[in-house]
Design a protein that fits this description.
With 290 residues, the chain is an all-alpha fold. It has one domain. The protein is 80% helix and 0% strand. The chain has 13 helices and no strands. α3 crosses α9.
Length: 290
């Protein structure tokens, strides 16, 4: 891979891990997730007006936009709840294990074939998630992850991963029908609109204002990172093979776990970094080899 796309995709991976670190540190997670989407939409709206030759509403992708909007709303809410309940070094890698579910769903729903390498990748992801929940390497610890997978944080992280699976498949069909940038433009409005309806009903306007006052800088930074990282990976995909770009971007799994261990001082750091590295290897096999 040439240096430029490699640099862009690594910057995208760093930005994704960083905004999740910022989200973990937020006060009210639901309000924070909505606010970063609002800021992201506002900050990058002028960019779309510059790079899109024509802006119109593509009616043919309305079903895909709706499905993706619902799935992304579930993703953001579940991710916020997972960060309320658990550590970044566990929640983030589990939530980023979605390529495993995407591969399985694509095989069942649209007939895509899972190769031997893909099967190995899925096995590695499952093993990596198991390792993440270990608290050590002693024999008595080996059965602990089977119980820990039922913890609220892990359950919500898996829901977030399933949300990613649904919107990934829906987006895949949507961008085959229209310009990906045009699709992304409208998707931002759909996600923000749906997330606004749910969050305002659940949390109220006053809590949103309180979170904005207390986290304006963090919201602004995360808003830039959310959409900025996505734009970087779009540019990278125009310069190199898409499968390699998407696979390499999953190195954010390791970066997110490391941020939790190093900056948040979360426990069992060595085990969790090893688990995240195993997940990354599995995801890379699914994306780049399978």
């Amino acid at each position: 891979m040439d240096p430029l796309p490699f640099t862009l995709v690594m910057a995208s991976a760093v930005s994704h891990a960083l905004w999740n670190y910022v989200a973990k540190e937020a006060g009210d997670k639901d309000s924070f997730m909505l606010l970063i989407n609002v800021f992201s939409l506002g900050i990058f709206l002028p960019v779309f007006f510059v790079i899109l030759p024509e802006i119109y509403f593509p009616v043919e992708v309305l079903p895909f936009l709706f499905v993706s909007g619902v799935a992304e709303t579930i993703y953001f809410l579940a991710l916020g709840k997972a960060y309320e309940e658990g550590d970044l070094s566990v929640v983030y890698p589990v939530a980023r294990s979605s390529p495993m579910f995407v591969a399985i769903a694509a095989s069942l729903l649209i007939g895509e074939r899972i190769t031997v390498w893909g099967t190995l990748g899925i096995a590695l992801i499952l093993f990596g998630v198991y390792v993440l929940h270990l608290k050590g390497w002693s024999g008595e610890e080996l059965t602990r992850p089977l119980k820990a997978l039922g913890d609220p944080a892990s359950r919500y992280a898996f829901v977030a991963a399933l949300g990613t699976t649904v919107y990934s498949l829906s987006d895949k069909m949507g961008v085959t029908a229209v310009d990906p940038l045009l699709y992304s433009f409208w998707l931002g409005f759909v996600i923000t609109g749906m997330l606004s309806l749910v969050t305002v009903k659940r949390r109220g306007v006053s809590l949103l204002r309180e979170e904005l006052r207390g986290s304006l800088f963090r919201v602004s930074v995360a808003g830039v990172l959310v959409k900025g990282g996505y734009m970087l990976v779009l540019v990278a995909m125009s310069l190199a093979q898409v499968s390699y770009i998407l696979a390499l971007r999953q190195v954010s799994v390791v970066l997110g776990a490391a941020l939790g261990v190093v900056l948040l001082k979360e426990r069992y750091g060595r085990v969790r970094v090893v688990g995240s590295m195993i997940i990354f290897m599995g995801v890379y096999l699914l994306g780049a080899v399978a």
